[in-house]
Each structure stands twice: as structure tokens, then as C-alpha cells.
């Protein structure tokens, strides 16, 4: 029997490849080559599955990255570069998934609430790193948004901006950062 995580990962794959309309019990069962009984054992129905899937997306594609960046050390610059590397180099990262979740959010109130929360959490984290770098409070909001919008925009253009090009763009943006505050 597949684990709950297996079902959620399958859902992210289906969502990424085919979009939210393809998130059906039949499609998920076919994807995992399992019966509906296993699905109902874990979720009870599609409404619960979609809620759990959105939570899983938030945890894996936001919380895990922030936790990873925080483990990079005390330097805000190290955290920023580690975050960038995690997001761009993670083999599990699928930019189509981010696009699919945004498209889903245009059609579904629960997905929209999740997208709003995820976007806010990501921008808030970037703001906090900007402040740690010694950036002014007045610049923290716009810079947090700028750093995030560069990533979102890079995923939306066709073809998407490559990881190497995106790293160059972030290096340029981070040259705008003041020298990190030093503890005395």
C-alpha cells in the first residue's frame, strides 16, 4: 500500500504535468497503479486530499527551503545564496509545479488562499534576510518583493530563465545589498 506521502507526491506530479483538472481519484490511482481503497484509506475523499496536497506543497516547496537556508549559518548572505541554490539546484523542483499551483489558485479559493500565504511567507523571509544584511527598513519590503518577483517571473517566461542566468541576476541584485552588520 502506498503511504500518504506517496499519494501527495503523485498529486504534485499530476498537477505539474497535467494541471488541477487532472487531479482525480482515477488519475491518481492510475499514476500509482493502485486501487481507490488505498486512496480512501488515507484521505476519505477528494476534498481532504486537495487540502492535504496544498499543505504538502507549502511544506515541501516553502518550509523546507527556508529551513534549509536557515541551516546555512549565521551570515545572511550565506543564507540567501544557499536558498537560491536549494531552489534552483533541487532535483525535485519543478517550475511547472509552481505555474500549475498559480493556475489552480485562479480557479479555486482554497488554492488561492494557499498561494497568498506561500507568497507572503516567501517574501517575508526575503525581507528578513535583507534586514539581516543591513538593509534599511524602508528598502526591506520592496527588495523582498523584487527578489521574489525575479524568481516568479523567470519561471513564467517562455522559455524559462535558466538556473545559471538566474544566479547571475541574483548576484547582480545582491550587489545592491549593504555590507552585513557585524556584531560588536
Automatic annotation (TrEMBL):
Q: Keyword set for this entry? A: DNA-binding
Q: Where is the HTH tetR-type domain?
A: 1-61
Query: What positions does the DNA-binding region cover?
Result: 24-43
Q: Name one GO molecular function term.
A: DNA binding
Cite the PROSITE patterns for this sequence: HTH_TETR_2
Taxonomically, the superkingdom here is: Bacteria
Database matches in InterPro entries: Homeodomain-like_sf (IPR009057), HTH_TetR (IPR001647)
Extract the Gene3D superfamilies matched here: Tetracycline Repressor, domain 2
Q: Does the keyword 4Fe-4S apply?
A: no
Pfam family for this entry, one: TetR_N
Question: What is the protein named?
Answer: AcrR family transcriptional regulator
Specify the species. Answer: Nonomuraea dietziae
Amino acid at each position: 500500500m502506498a503511504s500518504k506521502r506517496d499519494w501527495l507526491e503523485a498529486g504534485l506530479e499530476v498537477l505539474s504535468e497535467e494541471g488541477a483538472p487532472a487531479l482525480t481519484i482515477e488519475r491518481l490511482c492510475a499514476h500509482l497503479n493502485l486501487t481507490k481503497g488505498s486512496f480512501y484509506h488515507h484521505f476519505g475523499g477528494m476534498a481532504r486530499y486537495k487540502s492535504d496536497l496544498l499543505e504538502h506543497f507549502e511544506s515541501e516547496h516553502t518550509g523546507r527551503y527556508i529551513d534549509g537556508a536557515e541551516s546555512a549559518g549565521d551570515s545572511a548572505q550565506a543564507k540567501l545564496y544557499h536558498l537560491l541554490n536549494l531552489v534552483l539546484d533541487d532535483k525535485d523542483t519543478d517550475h511547472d509545479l509552481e505555474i500549475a499551483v498559480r493556475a489552480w489558485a485562479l480557479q479555486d479559493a482554497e488554492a488561492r488562499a494557499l498561494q497568498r500565504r506561500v507568497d507572503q511567507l516567501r517574501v517575508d523571509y526575503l525581507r528578513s534576510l535583507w534586514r539581516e544584511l543591513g538593509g534599511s527598513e524602508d528598502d526591506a519590503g520592496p527588495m523582498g518583493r523584487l527578489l521574489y518577483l525575479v524568481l516568479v517571473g523567470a519561471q513564467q517566461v517562455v522559455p524559462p530563465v535558466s538556473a545559471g542566468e538566474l544566479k547571475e541576476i541574483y548576484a547582480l541584485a545582491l550587489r545592491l545589498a549593504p555590507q552585513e552588520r557585524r556584531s560588536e
